[in-house]
Amino acid sequence: MMLSLDRKNFDAEVLESQGWVLVDYWSPKCEPCKELKPHVEKLGEKYGESMKFCELDITKARRVAIGQKVMGLPVVAFYFDGEKKAELTGDITPEAVEEKINELLG
Amino acid sequence: MSKVYDVAIIGGGPGGLTSALYASRGKLSTVVIEKGQVGGQAATTEEIENWPGTEHTTGPQLTENMRKHAEKFGTEFVRDDVQGLEADGFIKTIKGRNAEYQAKSVIIATGAEPRVLGIPGEREFRGKGVSYCATCDADFFEELDVVVLGNGDAAIEEAMFLAKFAETVTIIVIHEEGKVDATPVVAEKAFKHDKLKWVWNSTISEIGGDGIVEYVDVKNINTNEVTRMDTHGVFVFVGTVPRTKAFANLINVDDYGYAIVDPQTLESNVDGVFVVGDCRQKHLRQVVTAAGDGATAAVLAEKYIHEEEGFIEDVVDVDKPVIVAFWSPTSEASMAAMPKIEAAVKELGDAVKLVKIDMYRNSRISSRYEIIEVPTVTVFNKGEVVEKLVGLDVTTEALVNKVKELN
């Protein structure tokens, strides 16, 4: 399971967190997001020890998303020690997410 | 892997779901392979008011009902992303990312996806204000300004949807003032809408900003004059491209990638592989036409299975020679040949089996064995053609001699 973020815990869990954090930005109205999410969850089982997997429903925290310069879905963003290091947008495939994880984890 | 479905449907939009309903209701074992949520493009369409008998519904609601309806009759749903298809025999293999699936007939219902313009900034600002899906992203733009590029039904309807959220919606139209490609009923509603603004004779030449979209450059196509317009979002609705790449090595597609099928049967150039909905060449791409395609293909898929299984049972899997007479009740010559064939069969007795095939009613098998005129008589032995006699060459003696030679 991924950690659910909202406007209350976003700073603590992402921006003030040490190490790698993945944030899957999604919305219940976004079909491609709902398509991608279970795949990201599965990757969380595989890479969960070296990266914290989180999800943010933007309908509950729109301003948080915009603050992170996310203005469209889906977006999968990668943070290290609270700083955004990489981001996937557009037609995101599960393979692209895994590739990016491997690239970042080295 | 061991299960062989009667019908495998690739794609779970309205076309695929209607095929599933008709096939499973017709007692065919049916699977829908969908890479994500069912519903297809319709599921990202908020307002639907041209589905007959239903004055107003939403895309997600309508397609969810279609899914339940198909499921009620026994359709199985599998989540997988199809990468390719092998269809060189009666049993076809669909290669998914997770597994392989086998089926006697395949209905490709993969639909289409939004066309990308290819202008500077478009790719860079994806997820940063550039969007192709109003339902996905409208929430971001509450009280903000957005532009919509395009003027077909999708563009105009989505612009009206966005107007529920955004402060202003500016529609950029390439045609002269007052002219849009959307159907008149949609256009009239939009022209009366007080939140919509219009820019005519124009397109977008660049999208820019610092990390997120801040402006678009609007270019007047008559004067080439470029005006910078501040905005927070750009919604692009300039048509669609078909999702046929995974099959393009197998089925015939046009220059744009739309599948070319027989307009009567929706069968592709590959036997038993049908294409329905937005991914095929057609005039009108709507939920209702996709559904119509779906029904047609399911019924033709059943006919295909029936004919092929009949042919395998009657001709291919028979342990003695089989005389297959291709004929037509409208051809005098083929009627005249029948007594000669019957005489041969009578003389040979148990040593042979006779099967008659109406060339025009079963054109698929006729063309597979290159039958170009009637009468043509072929002799099958162990599933293979060992003799072919055409027209006046069809004689009792020739048939008797050939079969005796085999026994």
Describe the structure.
The complex is a heterodimer of chains A (106) and B (407). Chain A is an alpha/beta fold and 106 residues long. Chain A has a single domain (3-105), classed as Glutaredoxin (3-Layer(aba) Sandwich). Helices cover 39% and strands 27% of the residues of chain A. Chain A has a 5-stranded mixed sheet. The model of chain A has no long low-confidence stretch (mean pLDDT 95). Chain B starts with a strand and ends with a helix. Chain B folds into 3 domains: 4-112 and 240-312, FAD/NAD(P)-binding domain (3-Layer(bba) Sandwich); 130-236, 3-Layer(bba) Sandwich (FAD/NAD(P)-binding domain), CATH 3.50.50.60; 319-406, Glutaredoxin. In chain B, helix 1 (14-25) packs parallel to helix 2 (59-72) and helix 7 (332-348) crosses helix 9 (396-406). Chain B has helices spanning 14-25, 59-72, 134-137, 153-162, 184-192, 287-316, 332-348, 363-368, 396-406, and strands at 4-10, 30-34, 76-79, 82-86, 92-96, 100-108, 112-114, 130-131, 145-149, 168-172, 196-199, 202-209, 213-220, 226-230, 233-236, 240-242, 273-275, 322-327, 353-358, 376-381, 384-390. In chain B, the strands form 5 sheets. In chain B, strands 1, 2, 3, 4, 5, 6 and 17 form a 7-stranded mixed sheet that branches. A 5-stranded parallel sheet of chain B has the order 8-15-9-10-11, covered by helices on one side. With 407 residues, chain B is α/β, with parallel strands linked by helices. Chain B is built from 9 helices and 21 strands. The chains are: A alpha/beta (106), B alpha/beta (407). The interface between A and B is medium-sized, with 25 and 27 residues.
